[in-house]
């Protein structure tokens, strides 16, 4: 099975995107960070590569959609607690992120999310149990 994950996200303003995620408390791996891309450390072996849009275009022949108006997917991260979910959403809001919906509480799972400066959707969840049997 896989040992690491790298989610690649194009960014219109890489320095602004880096500052946004630093405001949320995240760090970058300097070995894989330069003016074209930044390796955002999300956890052990979990990374998002924030790529300057012109550089990101060198990896695909497909057109990019505007994540502020279209969804092709989203990043979902687990959190240790409901408080961690709420704290990260509050930090995202304070750093200029958009909060597209209210928190969702399913009893066994609590989730909330934000959109970063480019409109990429980040969902945060805390699992406190298992879903009820169907």
TrEMBL record:
It comes from Pelomonas caseinilytica. It comes from the Bacteria. Keywords: Dioxygenase, Oxidoreductase. Gene3D superfamilies: 2,3-Dihydroxybiphenyl 1,2-Dioxygenase, domain 1. Residues 3-127 form the VOC domain. The keyword Oxidoreductase applies. GO terms for molecular function: dioxygenase activity. This is Glyoxalase/bleomycin resistance/extradiol dioxygenase family protein. InterPro entries: Glyas_Bleomycin-R_OHBP_Dase, Glyas_Fos-R_dOase_dom, VOC_core. The lineage of its organism: Bacteria, Pseudomonadati, Pseudomonadota, Betaproteobacteria, Burkholderiales. PROSITE patterns: VOC. The keyword Lipid metabolism does not apply.
């Amino acid at each position: 099975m896989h040992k690491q994950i790298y989610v690649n996200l194009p960014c219109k303003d890489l320095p602004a995107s880096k500052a946004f995620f630093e405001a949320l408390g995240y760090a970058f791996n300097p070995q894989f960070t330069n003016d074209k891309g930044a390796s955002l450390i999300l956890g052990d072996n979990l990374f998002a590569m924030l790529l300057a849009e012109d550089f990101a275009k060198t990896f695909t022949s497909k057109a990019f959609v505007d994540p502020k108006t279209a969804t092709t997917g989203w990043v979902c991260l687990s959190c240790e607690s409901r408080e961690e979910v709420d704290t990260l959403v509050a930090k995202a809001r304070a750093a200029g992120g958009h909060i597209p919906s209210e928190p969702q509480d399913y009893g066994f799972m609590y989730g909330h999310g934000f959109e970063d400066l480019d409109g990429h959707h980040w969902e945060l969840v805390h699992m406190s149990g298992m879903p009820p049997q169907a």
